[in-house]
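#struct-help
A.M.: can someone run this one for me? Single chain, 445 residues.
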Amino acid sequence: MHARPTDPCLRRRHGRIAVLAAAVAAVLAAALASVPGAAVQPAADPAPPGCTLAAHPELPRTPADSWQDTARLDFTAWPARGAGTDDRALVADALAAWCRPALVHAEAGAAAAPPGAPPRLLWAGQLDGAGVVLLDDGSRLARYTRPDHPGAADPDRVEISRDDDSDVTTAGAVLLRSTPAGDRFLIAPWVQQVQLRDLRAPDTAGRELAVPADGVTPPVPAPPGSGCGSWPVLQLRSSPVVAEHHAFLLTDLGTVVPAHLTYQPPPQAGPAQSPREATGPSALLAWDRLACLLPTLRQQGVKSVNAWQFAVQQLPGSAGQASWVCSRADRWDGTGSAATEFLTPVADTADEGAPAAVTARQPQGRACSRFEQYVLAATWWRAPDGRSYLLAAGSRHVVRMAVSGAAVLAASATPQQTAAVPAARTGPVSVSGYLDTGLELHPMG
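D.P.: on it. Structure tokens below:
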């Protein structure tokens, strides 16, 4: 780029024009002021183009079969559904409400600003005693709810959720309406089968749900407000038209878009494994133990939760095999949290679904993600004979551990990268792990 000052003569000419324009404006203002009753009012800010139907015959809509002809299976492929898609008054109310800050609630990571252009219509109609409209502006979903009898527990409102970077699973359903009678989900057009299952009952098959043409499920139980005796999830299977044609789990964590649950199995020989769908027997057994951790993730804008079983450990005294898990919650805004958990052997528990014990937390960070793939965890454990141990485990490539304050272990790596040190549970203890690269690790948090 080459920049230079403007021509001096041209600057002087522009200056004379600006002075003349200012003089004319002053004369006009004086003339208006001399007219009885006349006043110069500031121009009102026009409503954003996405807040009114006045200039648009109808909102943009995606053709019903578009999802069968695109390689982009996300919310942009959702058609407009519901009996109220032609109810202009209801849709206009939804757009106007989106532009009233008092009615708008933005979930974590989402912007509350009105749409800059008319959003696409995804659903509109009456549902469980309320008018409901679902809109998408390309990066956010807006769920408008107008109850027939609004009150403190069920007011007029617009809830905004991010939906950018969604895919065939994370765009698999939307929570359309939640009442004491249960949750009503709107299912993606590429989903062929919908089942309801309980994470706390991994050996029980899912119950088939009949979904009508408008894609709205019948009321299904919502996760409990407290406790975790049961935890309902949706198990969806995509259509054979979609290459994956696979089943996946979604759960209600108090946001417009349910969270996607995945699972990563224990390490094996060869390349590291990637997260997979949490629908297999091993995944369901792990999530049975981890379900009680999900309430801590409510209303945090969580996009997906992965359970990474990074190590297994044979406990001293032939007490069975324990598992070490790192649960990773990724949010729509790109941030995330993680926690390490210790799962005692099933034979060691009176209840086969005994909840996992949290050993450490990282409220904000990238632990246990693809960008931070190494983890170390430790916990105290009491053997059946009453002896106390400090247990530690590391992920792949951990070749040595050091425990100070109770004992020191400096040995070559075992296949499970684990250690069990007899120690009294008194005083501070420090645990370090070392990768084959020499990098030192410490437990998170």
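A.M.: thanks! The chain has a mean pLDDT of 86.
D.P.: also worth noting: The longest helix spans residues 8-34.
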